[in-house]
Amino acid sequence: MRDEPRPKSHHSNGGTLSAFQRHGEVIKPAELIEVRGGEKITLAARRIYNQLLSNAFGPHMAAEGQEYRIPFAELRGNHTSNDRVTEAILSLMQTVVRVRMSDGSTRNVHLLGPTDIEKFGPGIATMLTYELHPKLLPILRDSQIFARLEMQILHGFATKYGMALYEIIAKRIGLKHVFYNDFETEELRDYLGVPEGKLVSFAALRRKAIEPAVAEVNMLAPFSCRIDVVEKLGRKITKLRVSWWLKTVDEQKAQWQAQKGQQGDLFSPALPETLVEELDG
């Protein structure tokens, strides 16, 4: 049986690739957010993949054979070694995920194509050249729905579960008159990236994945959320509801100031005008 098409959030009549990506932002096609089979992707790899998508984003992103370049320094963050970046890149090249298409069908696809690492002199690697996997290009070309992710928020997450939940909600936050989405428990486990055979009981899932993810999203994102049980089959939890709501401007200002103190190198010196404009608009 094919999965049902997903709800729409940010929708572009000209396609996702025609959207305008602001500085410090990642426009991520919806098809790459709720995927299955990515449980081995680490937090670092998830963050780096978003950076690679942001760096490649544009109207020619789905062109076959297109190469992109990005300095290793941008991918390292505060780390001085390239080891973690190299491991993440190899992981992304080897990982095959199950992507749900807009028509409800499923496609198995690698997240990243060929890569080259350039070194100038005897020092550490300085530049990454990469391609998106050819099987990914039709998905990017046909995508009509996307999420707007903030790079400074992505850098604030300490768990991959929190980052995954942030993306799940960011994809839907633009929906009007829709403030929750129900997921089968196993489905949400996959979307959060819980490894198979881990956190088997719901108590463990809630304590180790759901509660930390909700706490991180509520601390970092411009919206708040909660996850509630909405269906049981005997003693088994079969369905969960993810609910979300925008924070007030004052709440966002306080949050922005708190996070700026912890991630000053990622923040502009003034409160982003778009924050107030988007909430008041």
TrEMBL record:
Transmembrane region(s): none
Annotated spans, Disordered: 1-21
Ranges for domain Initiator Rep protein WH1: 26-169
Record-linked InterPro entries: Initiator_Rep_WH1 (IPR000525), WH-like_DNA-bd_sf (IPR036388), WH_DNA-bd_sf (IPR036390)
Pfam family membership, one: Rep3_C
Top-level taxon in the UniProt lineage: Bacteria
Similarity-based family: Belongs to the initiator RepB protein family.
Protein name: Initiator Rep protein WH1 domain-containing protein
Record organism: Paracoccus acridae
